[in-house]
Design goal:
single chain, about 200 residues, mainly beta, 5-stranded mixed β-barrel, 4 helices, disordered C terminus
Length: about 200
């Protein structure tokens, strides 16, 4: 659809916006793929419930299971403008951009080599996810053993004793120098020594 011809007023309004602008509005609809926001300023969208749209990762720095963990229909919100989506004639917005990044705070207060304690929350083919508290998750990659594939997570954890099932084992972790954001939650690349003696290290 030629939005510029079909909705020239809305197109012109969106072209005036700049990355970093703060826009206010009301949550108009919540879908599994994101949240529509009816903006206080500018024309209404000809098809969608709101001109503003927030994708799931931009709702919060924390891991969430559903958009309703963060917002509800009718809620007033202030968001940062990210970009003009010319395909959908939308203003892409971010809620989390207006909140402190917990990963930055974690990196600032945690020196490399400091021993950390966390709970293994999930075992994946390439490593384990460790909950370090305060919304911070650590990734512990499995070692590459010489002449063989990476150690299997099942092989590495089967039969190990812990305070609870393997999905919530306690571990002792040391963050490595590189930090990176995970999907849905801040994450840190870590090396660690599990309390029962099993050792894991960053690759």
């Amino acid at each position: 659809m030629d939005w510029q011809s079909e909705s020239p007023e809305l197109w012109a309004f969106l072209e005036t916006l700049h990355r970093g602008d703060i826009l206010s509005g009301t949550v108009a609809a919540i879908e599994r793929f994101g949240v529509f926001v009816a903006l206080d300023d500018g024309p209404a969208h000809p098809l969608f419930p709101g001109v503003g749209f927030i994708v799931i990762p931009e709702l919060s720095w924390r891991h969430i299971y559903a958009p309703t963990d963060v917002v509800h229909v009718g809620q007033r919100v202030s968001c940062e403008f990210l970009q003009f989506d010319t395909y959908n004639l939308e203003a892409r917005l971010s809620l989390r951009a207006l909140e402190p990044d917990p990963l930055r705070a974690f990196a600032d207060r945690t020196p490399v080599g400091q021993e950390l304690h966390g709970t293994v929350e999930k075992v994946l083919p390439f490593g384990v996810i460790v909950d370090l508290g305060d919304g911070i998750a650590g990734l512990i990659p499995f070692r590459e053993a010489p002449g063989r594939p990476a150690v299997s997570p099942v092989e590495g954890l089967r039969g190990r004793r812990g305070r609870s099932p393997s999905s919530s084992r306690r571990s002792t972790c040391r963050p490595a120098e590189s930090f990176f954001p995970g999907r849905g939650t801040p994450s840190a690349r870590v090396s660690c020594r599990l309390r029962d003696g099993q050792r894991c290290s960053s690759r």
